[in-house]
Structure formats: C-alpha cells, structure tokens
C-alpha cells in the first residue's frame, strides 16, 4: 500500500472555460473591469452573456461597464468538499451578488467569515487572477 501526501494529489480548482459569447467577459476581467451585455435595441442588461436579448430577441449588444458595487442577494454555505480541490477550503460561501445596475452573478466572497455573510450585505468587486487566462469576479465586503 502506498500513501501520497494530499497536497501532491489535490487537483487544481476547476476554472471557468469561457464560451465564444462569454470570452470578452473574461478579457475585461483580466483588465479589472466587470462588464455585462447591454442590449442596444431595448437597453436591457443581462448576465451571463447570451447570443440574444431575453427581453426583445435582438442580437445587437455591447459590453457595459458595471460599477462593481452590489449587495448579496442570496447565498449558500458549503461545508463538505464536493470536489477534492475544495478540501481545506471549506466552509465557504457561494453568493449571488445583485449589482447596483441590476444584473446578478454567482461569485464568492474574500475575507468574510461564513457566519457573517448576510443577505443585503454591501459588497464590491475584487477581480482575482487565478491563471493567465482567468480572473474571477470575486467580491469583498464594502
Ligand atoms: Zn433587448
């Protein structure tokens, strides 16, 4: 029987794989900007990126710069590692942040103990590079 230290067998965190429509979202984050689709026909902001506006069906859109300010709309605390890469990182909070401009996105909080996470908590964007390609839109308490 062989034994291998956990650190050497722990896979890296699974990272997002940008889609064709979503690639610019990740490019903007690498520059520290959170941008979401704005339909240029009806003005609706939507996230995640989609081919068509869910309100009017237009395929015309632009990447609108968000302020990075928002509040925790909802959250869940994970206390068991559902993937080996999360061992040593539990418990952690997955939050739905409602940006002040309206769109919501799933994220995680930095430097907030899980028992302090609350609906309505003001947060601000903290772009966090985790690889050469991926900068995550994490948030800190505002
Ligand atoms: Zn539209």
Short characterization:
With 142 residues, the chain is mainly beta. Helices cover 8% and strands 37% of the residues.
Overall pLDDT level: 90
Helix content: under 10%
Domains, number: 1
- How many helical elements? 2
- Reading the helices and strands in chain order gives HHEEEEEEEE
Estimated radius of gyration? 17 Å
Uncertain stretches of 5 or more adjacent residues: 1-8
Please describe what this structure looks like:
The chain has helices at residues 6-9, 23-30, and strands spanning 35-39, 45-46, 61-65, 69-78, 92-99, 104-110, 122-129, 135-141. With 142 residues, the chain is mainly beta. It has a single domain (20-141), classed as OB fold (Dihydrolipoamide Acetyltransferase, E2P). The strands form two sheets. It has a five-stranded mixed barrel. Mean pLDDT is 90; it is low at 1-8. Residues 39, 41-42, 44, 53, 55-56, 58 line the site of zinc ion.
Give the key terms.
142 residues, mainly beta, OB fold (Dihydrolipoamide Acetyltransferase, E2P), five-stranded mixed beta barrel, three-stranded antiparallel β-sheet, 37% strand, disordered N terminus, binds zinc ion
What does the secondary structure layout of this molecule look like, with pairings?
Layout: H1 6-9, H2 23-30, E1 35-39, E2 45-46, E3 61-65, E4 69-78, E5 92-99, E6 104-110, E7 122-129, E8 135-141
Parallel strand pairs: 6-8
Antiparallel strand pairs: 1-2, 1-3, 4-5, 4-7, 5-6, 7-8
């Amino acid at each position: 029987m062989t034994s291998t230290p956990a650190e050497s067998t722990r896979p890296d965190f699974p990272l997002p794989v940008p889609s064709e429509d979503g690639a610019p979202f990740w490019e903007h984050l690498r520059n520290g900007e959170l941008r979401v689709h704005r339909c240029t026909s009806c003005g609706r902001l939507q996230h995640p990126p989609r081919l068509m506006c869910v309100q009017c069906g237009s395929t015309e859109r632009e990447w609108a710069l968000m302020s990075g300010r928002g509040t925790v709309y909802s959250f869940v605390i994970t206390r068991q590692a559902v993937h080996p890469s999360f061992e040593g990182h539990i418990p952690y909070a997955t939050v739905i942040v409602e940006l002040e401009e309206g769109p919501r996105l799933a994220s995680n909080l930095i430097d907030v103990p899980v028992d302090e996470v609350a609906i309505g908590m003001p947060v601000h964007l903290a772009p966090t590079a985790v690889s050469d390609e991926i900068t995550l839109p994490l948030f800190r308490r505002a």
